[in-house]
Amino acid sequence: MKHKPFYILPFLFFSTGFSSAQEQPIKIEKDSVVLxxxxxxxxxxxxxxxxxxxxxxxxxxxxxxxxxxxxxLLENLDESFAEWPKSIDFESPSFRLRIGSFKTRLTAERxxxxxxxxxxxxxxxxxxxxxxx
Length: 133
Hints:
With 133 residues, the chain is of the alpha+beta class. The chain has a domain at 56-125: Sporulation related repeat (Alpha-Beta Plaits), CATH 3.30.70. 41% of the residues lie in helices and 26% in strands. It has helices at residues 4-19, 39-54, 67-75, 105-118, and strands spanning 26-29, 32-35, 58-65, 86-91, 94-102, 123-125. The strands form two sheets. A four-stranded antiparallel β-sheet has the order 4-5-3-6, with helices on one face. A two-stranded antiparallel ribbon has the order 1-2. A hairpin with a 2-residue loop joins β1 and β2. The longest helix has 16 residues, at 4-19.
């Protein structure tokens, strides 16, 4: 009998949490649900969208080496990858040939499989953003 209040206490704690979880009303209009949102939710959503845009896309790195060899490889790049964006980036001590711009890792990995048939040393790469403080 001494422990009975300890069983009731967690139940009361969780039931009060669920009762106040829904503060804003849900409006139902002809087979669709419209949720009311606060300014805080809108600001968080906007911040998330901006983060997703600024985080950089996945790229496929085909080669890393001297500039002349990197440029030669860029000129002779396989026709099946011609429509993808291409760039030569310098990261000390070598130049890197990177192709593609993929929003999701899944899409990038699928394309990496196709690229590796022609260029076995290709790797998946996601650029890191440099933040200015």
